[in-house]
Task: inverse folding
């Protein structure tokens, strides 16, 4: 399961409002090959379910992972930072053995 912080929830709800997404949209989180550590996080909004999707809900936000990504992201917390040193979604992944300096890629 992927959980979200209150700050991430606020930002997700703001994006949904700004983009005028209806209630059929959910947050899709995935892991793809790439980045300086080998695997990269990918986050977007989607309203189409694909075969093998795993759905979770935390704090009223529907989150979707494909089965491959689920194996890498089980137990991960999605956060949002709007500080001076960086702005955007952050992943706190207990499965990552190494992350790059920017935090956008990892390895297990």
Result:
């Amino acid at each position: 399961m992927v959980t979200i912080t209150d700050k991430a929830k606020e930002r997700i709800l703001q994006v949904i409002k700004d983009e005028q997404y209806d209630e059929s949209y959910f947050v899709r989180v995935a892991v793809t090959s790439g980045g300086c550590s080998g695997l990269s996080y990918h986050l977007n909004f989607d309203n189409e379910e694909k075969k093998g999707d795993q759905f979770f809900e935390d704090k009223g936000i529907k989150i979707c992972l494909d089965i491959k990504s689920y194996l890498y992201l089980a137990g991960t917390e999605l956060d949002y930072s709007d500080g001076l040193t960086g702005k955007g979604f952050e992943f706190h992944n207990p499965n990552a053995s190494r992350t790059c300096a920017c935090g956008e890629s990892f390895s297990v």
Remarks:
- Helices lie at 6-19, 67-73.
- The two ends are 17 Å apart (CA to CA).
